[in-house]
Amino acid sequence: MRIVMIGSGYVGLVSGACLADFGHQVVCIDKDESKISRLREGKIPIYEPGLEDLVARNVAAGRLSFSTDLAQPVWDADCVFIAVGTPARRGDGHADLSYVHAAAAEIAPWLTGFTVVVTKSTVPVGTGDEVERILRDANPKADVAVASNPEFLREGAAIEDFKRPDRIVIGIEDDRARPVLEEVYRPLYLNQSPILFTGRRTSELIKYAANAFLAMKITFINEVAELCERVGADVQEVARGIGLDNRIGRKFLHAGPGYGGSCFPKDTLALVKTAEDAGAPIRLIETTVAVNDTRKRAMGRKIIAACGGSVRGKTIAVLGLTFKPNTDDMRDAPALAIIQALEDGGATVRAYDPEGMEAAKSMLPTVAFASSPYDAAEGASAAVIVTEWDAFRALDLRRLRGLMVGDALVDLRNIYQTEAVEAAGFVHTSVGRGL
Ligand code: UGA
Question: So where does NAD(+) get bound (predicted)?
């Protein structure tokens, strides 16, 4: 199959590289010339484990290439994926579809032969209809089928998720798209990943419903964690106790500082807006969004409480800035709201993150960036673990304590046991452990 991927961001680049690895001929397109020239030199603009090797291998094999010009690749293509960004629109929270619409308008004139155009970006219900309208208006002769194929990969585990997905969801309105997409995903068929063919609008909604459900699950356990602290229970045991029920499942029940990232915050908001506009509001998700926002700020107050009620004039070491480990992504990271709350309370923040500091620097101009967790802890009243990087799981706690002036270790990801932390001379504050 000859495949074009419009947009070489997270989803586009990972999907393009994985599809090339399946043996397809893939051209990844992006408007950003410097990104494309860096990709041609083998430089990957994001931190994602395994991606650099995957790209290098497929470029060397002649299956993967990069371009800013989509005309010839689209002309040749059997299948064109649209994987451009759909950020939350400023002001109203709706998904901003201008990049998707612009991509459709740009590919329209170059479509020849039967081509399947697939939206891989997360797009609200009805976007496939709009993409089809744009294509047909711009090129009435085009022989095209528009499909929806949402992506469910997680940052940090993107390649594994793409190659071994729990399921593939494909929404079509024209049956001719089915054999083309079956061929695109044939290697996964052979891996026995279930492929669900459904209608286009249903497929679009599945993506939002999946992310909203996961965000709700996290928010649920975060509220239970709060309750555990009040009544003397342990949220990790509660999560295990309920998660062993297969109907609930064990995953996404880790209490923490609230969900962040490029997907859950924007997708929950977009679903709320879509549901509101359709006259079928989803109250559970409206509440999820509100509770999660409150949660991030509450973590700031938790740290202040661990410092005896005030952080004025104190230094706080923040360990972990990215919204989760194994990424350099700072979008909607809980660390941003937490640091804001600490600075509002008069603290000086020294932070360390294994991959996120470059992106964080412009977002956190008043923070001092350290070269290691120990460097961050120098003179600090409290050390706060915000992101559960592996590098923080086996810290030399005695050494850390020895560098600090205070004795608070606030572990917002529950990666330490209280006994070990106390043995090193700390007072341990964790999440949802009331005992
Ligand atoms: C999420 C979904 O998991 C993917 O399936 C989806 O494809 C992706 O959004 C997307 O729409 O593109 P991602 O944002 O990369 O993936 O990260 P997750 O691993 O889902 O984590 C999201 C947030 O939830 C993080 O802040 C994480 O710390 C938090 N989280 C996750 C918890 O607080 N507790 C948990 O148990 C799980």
Answer: 30, 35, 86, 122, 155, 266, 331
